[in-house]
Structure formats: structure tokens, C-alpha cells
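Q: Sequence in, structure out?
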Amino acid sequence: MDQEFFEEKLEELVRELGALPDSTHQKLLEIANQHKDNQKKLKNSLCALQDSLDYLRISVKYLIFDLEATRRENAYLKKLLEEKQE
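A: Exactly. Output:
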């Protein structure tokens, strides 16, 4: 279900609730508002999680790059030591 579609339907439901008696209307309006707030919190949490995953991917790529560079440097230094010992 598309987020925009869901929000549109929720707004439509809230408008339709205006025709109900006050006590029922108030309860349902509260529930709808809580649900809307929960949706926003969930969306923010998902965005934060996505940002964290992106940062983790970059960090892992950097660590792999650094490890490969360290291995190349280690191999080069070993080769220099072997040539010096001969």
C-alpha cells in the first residue's frame, strides 16, 4: 500500500468521523491521530535505519579497501626484506 494513498484514506476517514456523536467522534479522532503519529515515528525510524545501514556499508567498504592496501604494503615490504637479505 502506498504511503500517500494511506494518508489520503486516513484523512478521508477523519472527515467522515465528523458526522458521529461527540463522544464516539472524539475517541475515533484520538485513535486516528495516534495512528498518524505512529506512522510518522515509524517512517522516521526507517529513515534513520536506512541512514545507519548506508553508513555501515561505507564503513565496511573502507575497511576492506584498507585491509587490501595493508596486504599489498605487507607483501611489498616482505619482498624488500627478502631482497635485502640476499
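The two ends are 71 Å apart (CA to CA).
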